[in-house]
Amino acid sequence: MSEEPLPSSPLEQLRTMAAVEAMMTDDLRHIEVYTMDGLLSLFWHGPSTATDVVLCCGGAMGGVLGPADALYHDLGVELGEQNIGLIRVGYRQPNETDSCVHDLLAAADLATRSGAQRFITMGHSFGGATAMQSAVVLAEHCAGLVTLATQSAGCEPAEDLATKIPVLMFHGTDDTILPIAASEMVQMILGGGELVRLPDVGHLLAEASEQLREHLREWIPSQFANHTKQ
Questions:
Q1: Is 216 helix (H, G, I), strand (E, B) or coil?
Q2: Are the beta carbons of 56 and 130 closer than 8 angstroms?
Q3: Separation CA 228–CA 147 (nearest Å)
Q4: pTM over 0.90
């Protein structure tokens, strides 16, 4: 008997039992993927055929709205109006790095099947490491990386990543969960990148919510445009 071929893509490797989706608004799809390892939830802003897509992930407890008073949701709405997609990824198994990286790559795989060509990964806290490792795997298809109050654990596979793609990091000086030294360590691991220090800001970054939005609504389209020219 011939052996069955192994699944070849992150989406196929999910061991999916069922999937369902619904349009929440004209520009927001909610997709639930039921797998043998848990429920993968995707909130997909913008056109499904977008060539540029941001992949956003939460911390060790999961979550899809993002820090800084639902940053991910608001960015998704704004970027969607510029024909940039944004997928908020709800992990199957929060705080399990390999599984969470797989979730981001499965979201990228799904988007690629609809026409996506370039990605920016973004993660908060534990999700910073998830976003970094995903960026490494996406390689030449990754146009940038954003971390928000990231941890340093799990970032080792991204050594020298900042010499290959643009990296933007934010961290509050009053973070009592992960001190700013974590992002400083990551900056050394990555071999560079821009670290924005946010005075008097805590781990959830709520005090800098508008600053983050202003910075990212310019930075993200700019990195996609630069990547297109390469």
A1: helix
A2: no
A3: 22
A4: yes
Q: How far is CA 62 from the centre of its chain?
A: 12
SS3 150: coil
Q: What is the tens place of the pLDDT at every residue in 134-147?
A: 999 999 999 999 99
CB atoms within 10 A of CB 183: 27
Minimal CA–CA distance to 132: which of 158, 162, 165? 158
Per domain, the residue ranges of the chain are: 42-229
- In the numeric block, the tokens 């990964």 are attached to 121
Q: What is the DSSP string of 23-83?
A: EEETTEEEEEEEETTEEEEEEEES-TT-SEEEEEE-BTTB-SS-HHHHHHHHHHHHHHTTT
Cβ contacts of 206 within 8 Å, gap of 6 or more: 67, 68, 69
* Locus of tokens 């700013």: 180
The set of residues, in sequence order, having a beta carbon less than 8 Å from that of 225 and lying 6+ positions away, is: none
State the Cα–Cα distance between residues 63 and 149, nearest whole angstrom.
15
Cα 221 to Cα 106: distance, rounded to the nearest angstrom = 23
Helical pair 126-138 and 181-190, crossing angle rounded to 10 deg? 10
Q: Per residue in 51-99, pLDDT tens?
A: 999 999 999 999 999 999 999 999 999 999 999 999 999 999 999 999 9
Q: Domain 42-229 belongs to what topology?
A: Rossmann fold (3.40.50)
82, 221 in Cβ contact below 8 A? Answer: yes
